[in-house]
Amino acid sequence: MRLNTGLVALGALSLPIASADYPTSGPDDNGLYWIHSEGLSAAFIAYGASISRLLINDQYGIQRDIVGGFDNASYYEIDQQHPHFGGVPGRYANRIQNSTFEIDGVTSHVDPNEHPTDAAPDGANTLHGGHDGWDFRNFTVVSHTNDSITFSIVDPDGKEGFPGEVVSYITYTLKDYTWDFKMVALATTKKTPIMLSSHTYWNLDGFANNETNTALNHTLYLPYSGQRVGVDNILIPTGDILANKQGSVNDFWSAPKQIGTSLNDPEAVNNCGLGCTGYDNCWIVNREAPYNWRDEGNFVARLHSPWSGIQVEVYTDQDAFQMYSCNGQNGTLTLKGTQGLHGDDAFPRTIPQYGCVVMEVEDWIDAINHPEWGRADKQIFGPGGDPYVLQASYVFSINATATP
Question: Which residues form the signal peptide (predicted)?
Answer without folding.
Answer: 1-20
